[in-house]
From TrEMBL:
<keyword id="KW-0808">Transferase</keyword>
<dbReference type="InterPro" id="IPR007507">
    <property type="entry name" value="Glycos_transf_N"/>
</dbReference>
<dbReference type="GO" id="GO:0043842">
    <property type="term" value="F:Kdo transferase activity"/>
</dbReference>
<dbReference type="GO" id="GO:0005886">
    <property type="term" value="C:plasma membrane"/>
</dbReference>
<dbReference type="InterPro" id="IPR038107">
    <property type="entry name" value="Glycos_transf_N_sf"/>
</dbReference>
<dbReference type="Pfam" id="PF04413">
    <property type="entry name" value="Glycos_transf_N"/>
</dbReference>
<feature type="domain" description="DUF374">
    <location>
        <begin position="76"/>
        <end position="146"/>
    </location>
</feature>
<dbReference type="InterPro" id="IPR039901">
    <property type="entry name" value="Kdotransferase"/>
</dbReference>
<dbReference type="GO" id="GO:0009244">
    <property type="term" value="P:lipopolysaccharide core region biosynthetic process"/>
</dbReference>
<protein>
    <recommendedName>
        <fullName>3-deoxy-D-manno-octulosonic acid transferase</fullName>
        <ecNumber>2.4.99.12</ecNumber>
    </recommendedName>
</protein>
<feature type="site" description="Transition state stabilizer">
    <location>
        <position position="366"/>
    </location>
</feature>
<feature type="site" description="Transition state stabilizer">
    <location>
        <position position="442"/>
    </location>
</feature>
<comment type="function">
    <text>Involved in lipopolysaccharide (LPS) biosynthesis. Catalyzes the transfer of 3-deoxy-D-manno-octulosonate (Kdo) residue(s) from CMP-Kdo to lipid IV(A), the tetraacyldisaccharide-1,4'-bisphosphate precursor of lipid A.</text>
</comment>
<comment type="pathway">
    <text>Bacterial outer membrane biogenesis; LPS core biosynthesis.</text>
</comment>
<feature type="active site" description="Proton acceptor">
    <location>
        <position position="291"/>
    </location>
</feature>
<dbReference type="Pfam" id="PF04028">
    <property type="entry name" value="DUF374"/>
</dbReference>
<dbReference type="GO" id="GO:0009245">
    <property type="term" value="P:lipid A biosynthetic process"/>
</dbReference>
Length: 652
């Protein structure tokens, strides 16, 4: 019946119209996620006359208009062509796609002395590829074998010099019983298009080049398909749901300790009174202060590219929220940035959050891996990235105990931007596949800011005293700092020890424990008097002041003790020319410490720390020698490249 309808006349026109209308309905109502390799992006949206071959399996032919529409939104002048056979199926495809701005080149390989238009099609393809167009081909068409790339695509790439972009696609669909098991999309579902890195075949064996292209299309197709639901993933979600009442009690306990805000506690359960702004919205999550500082340049670059874009930033700590509030108040783009506290990893709470904010793309930073959050984004069709990704050996070993859960979670990331090759290797060992190593955002960040008036006040407050700084200390570490202080004070009675705790809300407790009466606190506006041993600088976002004012810096979270591990970023004080020491725990920034090498003293305990500080205070020439030349800022274009990739994931 269908064949008779498609044979000609009004019946054929009616059938073509119905098929086209159905495909428009199905494809337009599908919520698509686009995972475009960074190297493929300039090839798919060329603005310099370049051409490319876009290769996908015949079974996904009906889904590819989604990619054409995506590319056309970025460059309305882009010309797109698709190679089809001269048979009835090819003519039907040509008629269906005609209104969509896709030109058809008809022809296939001549066989058994039958002219199938292969030579003419080849000439047409080469003409278009020489004219800055995209040309789509199905290397296993028109008759198979299924998912077997013929050598013709490699020959066409060699003749034209155009790269081949492997493409995989999937959406909610049903399959035909044809040789290729073609996918027919169903309306109102989710879909994914994955474009791999371009392939440029070299002269030589065409069959081997075709095999490489086929393998790349297979990889893209596999990446586009959803992974089956895992028992561990369901168990994790069930466990989080069951302990949700206990998490409410935990939030109230944190509130009593000053680690939550009373008026915004409901945000941790996915509830908010703030409306979602109209237009596109990109969500970035940064757990604490360091991560928040690293993504600020990315946010700035994204907002500069689109004056209508809004960015939602979530954090897990009050200190990071305070920092962002100040930075956004001072920035020209602050009005288009919204801060919320991230909901805990409970499926119901995450679901509320996503239904309200409906982000067009999401990005987690560093090691913020939350299975329920990532799963919820995947199910909602929200493309998600992991930027500045880091994974210590200890964390990798922990995830290996639930390797199936880790592999499933990492498979949902459309892009993972690892900060180092070592982090990338650890992530790949857990099953991550779409991993790049663009660099470390913290290296690309500018020096920490400092208000000149405030800096002059600090310098005046510590003038004429031997002074050293313990920066970003953690709970229990201040007692070790106090032991070092007593040892140093034996030779420098007028010593002042400046302590900047990582979490300022601990300032009052630290001041009371270290001295009687309590040590002066900067949060209360106090400055140290001549008899004060310690100055507790429990304010947020002022490390740039102290790294400039105090040349001898110890980096906290690095001395052995309960709850401490990994250190903090040494590049921040290094960039301002300090003399640096750290405890032996540096796992969080292995590469940065390795780059600085012997310029950072590693001290094992308070006695070794005291010896180091005493040596610098006693010998000004040694201090001048040990002060680092201002460490260079990393790749200044890195935030812009990451911003561009996130906007691509958001559908720009």
């Amino acid at each position: 019946m269908l064949k008779r309808l498609l044979a000609g006349g009004r019946g054929r026109a009616l059938a073509i119209g119905m098929l086209r209308s159905y495909l428009v309905l199905a494809l337009r109502t599908t919520r698509w996620t686009f995972d475009i390799h960074p190297d493929a992006l300039p090839v798919l949206t060329p603005r310099d006359g370049r051409s490319a071959l876009v290769a996908f399996w015949h079974e996904t032919l009906v889904l590819t208009p989604a990619l054409w529409w995506w590319a056309a939104r970025r460059d309305p002048a882009l010309r797109m062509h698709v190679l089809v056979s001269r048979n009835r199926d090819g003519r039907m495809i040509a008629d269906i796609v005609a209104p969509w701005g896709v030109d058809v080149i008809a022809g296939s390989t001549d066989r058994k002395n039958r002219n199938k238009g292969g030579a003419a099609a080849l000439r047409g393809l080469l003409d278009q590829l020489g004219d800055g167009s995209l040309v789509a081909v199905t290397p296993d068409g028109p008759r198979g074998p299924r998912r077997h790339a013929q050598s013709g695509i490699a020959g066409l790439a060699l003749l034209s010099g155009a790269p081949v972009v492997p493409v995989g696609a999937w959406c909610r669909s049903w399959r035909l019983g044809t040789w290729d098991r073609m996918l027919i999309p169903l309306p109102f579902g989710r879909g994914r298009v994955v474009c791999g890195a371009p392939i440029t075949p070299s002269r030589g064996d065409r069959a081997e080049a075709a095999r490489r292209i086929g393998d790349a299309i297979d990889a893209a197709t596999d990446a586009a398909c959803p992974t089956p639901a895992g028992m561990l993933s369901r168990l994790w979600a069930l466990l989080a749901t069951l302990i949700a009442p206990a998490l409410v009690l935990l939030l109230r306990r944190r509130l009593a300790r000053g680690k939550e805000r009373r008026d915004r506690l409901r945000e941790r359960m996915g509830l908010t009174a703030r409306p979602r702004p109209a237009g596109r919205l990109v969500w970035l999550h940064a757990a604490s202060v360091g991560e928040s500082l690293s993504i600020l340049p990315v946010i700035e670059r994204m907002l500069a590219r689109d004056a209508t874009l809004h960015v939602l930033v979530t954090t897990a700590t009050v200190t990071a929220a305070d920092l962002l509030d100040r930075r956004m108040a001072d920035a020209a783009w602050g009005g288009r940035t919204i801060h919320q506290f991230v909901p805990l990893d409970v499926p119901r709470w995450i679901g509320r959050f996503l239904r309200h904010w409906r982000p067009d793309a999401a990005a987690l930073t560093e090691s913020e891996l939350w299975p329920n959050l990532v799963e919820a984004c995947h199910r909602a069709g929200i493309p998600i990235a992991l930027v500045n990704a880091r994974l210590s050996d200890r964390s990798r070993d922990g995830w290996r105990r639930v390797s199936g859960l880790a592999q499933r979670m990492l498979s949902h990331f459309g892009w993972i931007a690892a900060r180092s090759a070592e982090d990338a290797a650890r992530l790949r060992a857990l099953g991550a596949t779409r991993v790049d190593v663009p660099g470390d955002l913290k290296d690309a960040a500018p020096p920490l800011p400092a208000d000149p008036v405030q800096l002059a006040g600090i310098v005046g407050a510590i003038a004429d005293r031997p002074v050293w700084l313990a920066a970003s200390t953690h709970d229990g570490e201040e007692e070790l700092i106090a032991r070092a202080d007593r040892l140093i004070r034996a030779r420098h009675p007028n010593l002042l020890t400046v302590i900047v705790p990582r979490h300022p809300e601990r300032g009052a407790d630290i001041a009371a424990r270290l001295d009687t009466p309590p040590a002066p606190r900067r949060a209360l506006g106090a400055t140290p008097g001549p008899a004060d041993r310690f100055w507790i600088c429990d304010t947020m976002g002022e490390l740039g002041l102290f790294y400039r004012a105090v040349p001898i810096v110890f980096i906290g979270n690095s001395l052995p003790g309960p709850g401490r591990r990994g250190g903090h970023n040494p590049m921040e004080p290094a960039r301002l020319g300090a003399a640096l020491a750290s405890g032996p725990l540096t796992d969080n920034f292995t590469e940065a410490f390795a780059r600085l090498g012997d310029a950072v003293a590693i001290v094992a305990d308070p006695a070794a720390l005291a010896d180091w500080v005493d040596g610098l205070l006693s010998d000004p020439a040694r201090l001048a020698q040990d002060r680092l030349p201002a460490a260079p800022v990393g790749d200044p274009d890195l935030p812009d490249r990451i911003a561009a990739r996130l906007l691509t994931m958001a559908g720009y």
